Inverse folding.
């Protein structure tokens, strides 16, 4: 199942956001290899690209990993509780989520022979969505009180 949402992109222009593209599995957290000394050249190159495009303070790195599988019609969503200074991640059905702003992506390899050298779904895949307001349990009482 593919669910497309309209999301502000590049200065407010609305763009389709595929929140449930087919996923390839990621390593479990315990098996995922962390950033290390042998990645120094990669990090320098990545920083150079981010600087070149004015994105150094917009994007960073995260360790891609899974804690549990997601079905094709599900998406991982993030909420926060500023008062408790906590983040919460949970699974929602992609078709029913109110979370419309992607906060984590993974890059997809360029497939040879496809138009523009990119996979049919684009060059990245959304991993997590976020809402710009706090939706944690109890937060309504704190905001209203």
């Amino acid at each position: 199942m593919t669910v497309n949402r309209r999301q502000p992109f590049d200065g407010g222009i609305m763009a389709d956001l595929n929140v449930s593209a087919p996923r390839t599995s990621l390593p479990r957290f315990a098996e995922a290899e962390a950033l290390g000394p042998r990645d120094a050249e990669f990090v320098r190159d990545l920083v150079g690209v981010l600087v070149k495009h004015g994105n150094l303070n917009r994007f960073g790195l995260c360790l891609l990993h899974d804690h549990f599988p997601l079905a094709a019609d599900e998406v991982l969503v993030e909420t926060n509780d500023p008062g408790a200074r906590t983040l919460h991640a949970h699974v929602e059905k992609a078709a029913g989520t109110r979370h419309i702003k992607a906060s984590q992506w993974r890059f997809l390899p360029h497939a040879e022979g496809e138009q523009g050298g990119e996979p049919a779904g684009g060059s990245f895949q959304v991993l997590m969505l976020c809402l710009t307001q706090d939706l944690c349990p109890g937060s309504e009482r704190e905001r209203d009180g």
